[in-house]
Amino acid sequence: MSGSRRSRVKYTKDELDFVEQHCQMLRSDMHAEFVKRFGRCDISIRNLDELRKRNRWLTGRTGPPPGWKPRYKFPVGHRPANAFKVGNIPKHKFKRIREIGFEFLTKDGYTAIYIAPKHFVPKHRYLWEQKYGAIPAGYFLKCKGDRADSDPSNWELIPRGLISMLDGPQGRGYSRAPAELKPIIMAVTRLEHTLKERKRR
Predict the structure, then answer these.
(1) End-to-end Cα separation, the chain, in angstroms
(2) In this structure, how many other beta carbons lie within 10 angstroms of the beta carbon of residue 91?
(3) Which of 87, 109, 12, 83 is nearest to 51 (CA)?
(4) Helix-, strand-, coil-residue percentages of the chain, each rounded to 5
């Protein structure tokens, strides 16, 4: 077999005793003290960590206490008042939350929901399809009001061709319009889109 195995670092009895007695120190602190006391600049933190593990000199950590529960784990269907507000959950902890039914707000203001471990979908789309079936190809769900409101009554199925006509650079500013004007804007845009489609035929 080509190559050579890495030779194991050798330690004196005093060095071994030191590591055993100080195994509960922070690794960086123990390493600094070890180098200072024995002058072993050839020894790295990893070397000492491997030595400690081989000899089962434990660090003293025993895991969470009995009855401890994760801070951000919520039962399905339970939603504390501020549980899913943007910025409430730190990004590095958010990645660990994958319970089915867990909800959160995306950076665009939409509510998303986990439907399987490591897999989430827009909640409004999920609820719509549960009630009306799969969204046809070429169609899109457009919000009538608050994006975070995922109730199917707050969403309208429209052809994708309407998206730019409603909110594009040359659109009618549908999303920014007052609630009382949105039905009118939608009706006029639908009519205009229908006329364009007929002309193409």
Answers:
(1) 73
(2) 7
(3) 12
(4) 35, 10, 50
CB atoms inside a 10 Å sphere around CB 4: 6
- Specify whether the CB–CB gap between 116 and 146 falls below 8 A: no
Place of tokens 């039914």: 101
Give the C-alpha separation, 42 to 32, whole Å.
Answer: 12
Q: Please tell me the pTM assigned to this model.
A: 0.48
CA–CA distance, 134 with 121 (Å, rounded to integer)? 14
CB atoms within 10 A of CB 118: 7
Which of 127, 121, 130, 195 shows the shortest CA–CA distance to 162? 195
pLDDT by position in tens, the chain (length 201): 444 455 678 889 999 999 888 888 888 888 888 988 898 888 888 888 888 888 888 776 666 677 776 655 555 554 545 444 444 455 555 555 567 888 888 888 889 888 877 788 899 999 999 999 988 888 989 988 888 889 999 999 998 888 888 888 778 888 888 888 888 988 998 898 888 888 877
